[in-house]
Every structure is written in C-alpha cells, then in structure tokens.
Amino acid sequence: xxxxxxxxxxxxxxxxxxxxxxxxxxxxxxxxxxxxxxxxxxxxxxxxxxxxxxxxxxxxxxxxxxxxxxxxxxxxxxxxxxxxxxxxxxxxxxxxxxxxxxxxxxxxxxxxxxxxxxxxxxxxxxxxxxxxxxxxxxxxxxxxxxxxxxxxxxxxxxxxxxxxxxxxxxxxxxxxxxxxxxxxxxxxxxxxxxxxxxxxxxxxxxxxxxxxxxxxxxxxxxxxxxxxxxxxxxxxxxxxxxxxxxxxxxxxxxxxxxxxxxxxxxxxxxxxxxxxxxxxxxxxxxxxxxxxxxxxxxxxxxxxxxxxxxxxxxxxxxxxxxxxxxxxx
Length: 329
Hints:
Layout: H1 2-11, H2 15-22, H3 35-39, H4 46-78, H5 96-117, H6 120-138, H7 146-165, H8 172-197, H9 200-206, H10 215-238, H11 256-272, H12 278-284, H13 286-303, H14 305-311, H15 325-328
Helix pairs in contact: 4-5, 4-6, 4-7, 5-6, 6-7, 7-8, 8-10, 8-11, 10-11, 11-13, 12-13
C-alpha cells in the first residue's frame, strides 16, 4: 500500500521537491572550507579561490548525498516531526530508492571534482568525511554525545580539506576552534529539537538519543561547550609560542565581545525553540546574521591588513610579521 502511494506521489514530484531533497540551504555549513585558505592569506590568489571553491562544491555534493541517504533511512521517523514531515521522502513525494540513486550520483561528483581540479589530499579527506557521515546515518547517530562529536568532526574535515586544497597547513588552533564551536552548535541543535517537538515520548520516536538527552543534560553540555569554545578562541589569540601565523592574530582578541554575543545568543535561541537548528538560526535571526558578518569583516580586515596596506602603497601602516617567541620573551 505504501509503495502505491509513493509511486503516485513520485509521478507528481516537481523540480522543487528534488532540490528540497538536496537541502541547498544547508550548504552554508560548507563555508568552513574557506577557513584554512582565509587564515593562510591565500584568498587573494584567483587560483587558490578556484581550488577552495572546488572543495566547497565537492562538500556540497557529499553533504547532499548524506542528506538524501539519511532521509531515506529516517522517513518514517521524520513523518512524526513537526517540520521534517514536509520533506519530500517523509511526505511520500519521493521514494527512498530514488533518493539512494541520487545520492550515488552526488557521491561520484563529489569525488571526481577534487581529483580533477585540486589534489588527492582533498579527495581522501572527502572520502573519509562521507564514510564517517554514512556511519553516523546508519548507526552512530543513536549514540548519545558521540553523535555530536561526529558531527563536529565533519566540520573539522571541511576545514582540513579547504586548507589542503590550497596547500596550506591547517594549524592545531584552527582544528580546535572549529571542533569546539561545532560541538556547541550540535548540542544546541538537540535542544532545539526537544523544544520544538514538545514532549519526551514524541522526541524519542523522532530521534532515540533525545530520550537520553534530557533538557538538564543538554543545558549542562551547552554551557560547558560554549565555555570551552570561547576559551579555545582566547588561547588561540593570546598564544605567543607559535610564530607561523601569517598575520597578527593577537588582534583577533579584540573581537571577543562579538564572539561572546554570538555564542550566547545562539544558546538563548536554542532554549526558546524558535528555530529548528543552527542553520536556520544563522540564516534567519537578524542579530545572529549581523554578528557573523561583523566578525567576519573585522577578522578579514585584521588578517589582510598588511597585504592591503602594501598594495595601496601605505607601507608605513603595516603591522609587520607576528612576533616570534624569542621576541616575546
């Protein structure tokens, strides 16, 4: 009976339904790919920008493939969710088998692009990302805390791939900052889900881990991960033991109020349950959008201050290279 409904719905599927299956609004997460190239000051090179964009596009394909597979697996549980029930597979517009075929094509494209236009490192990282996220979708998403750690690791792989695409070494600080911040976002997403669904029993039907992610536990995990993310950012800006930074990263310390505001506002919105998750918060909350844009502009201005000053003929305005540990002592 279900098969008949799916076939009927599939004939009436529109292009919008296929696009919805790919979740292009989630591609904003892949902007993390540009973190390494930006920190390495390579975005001024057209070739580096092209390679970073190839890595970005590859992760968009891979992420959409994972979303399609995940929707095919979870379509029954998604049908019980207040917003996910409108997804093409959960609503019966597309069949799970169609989603799997589309996913196979997307994975092939995700692996072909970096192999052809960047280097093997990006392809290897992307393959590891896909296998990890596939394992998450098939089984590991039911493991409390490990599920969020795996999601945060996926963002670390994005950052590593972006750095590898432009032949920049990703620093330990970049990995630590991305990992801790994305853990915070992940626990916040779980809090959003519980608040939106309403009661614990319905939440458990949608996602088994939500039965063990109690509001009290999530509040604690959000608080701890937020503190760790802020401290990691502070330690990065104040660390004077490494001199391999191509710009004066210590000036990023003065962006701390923006960082704190963004993290605290995300925590507040997660508690309120107005949005379904971090992507919706980042894209729809005006104050969150403003804080991200302001921090990004200030951070890029700090990172590219010297190259811009030199290109404009203001050599006297340059800050010079980062201080070495010997100079600090």
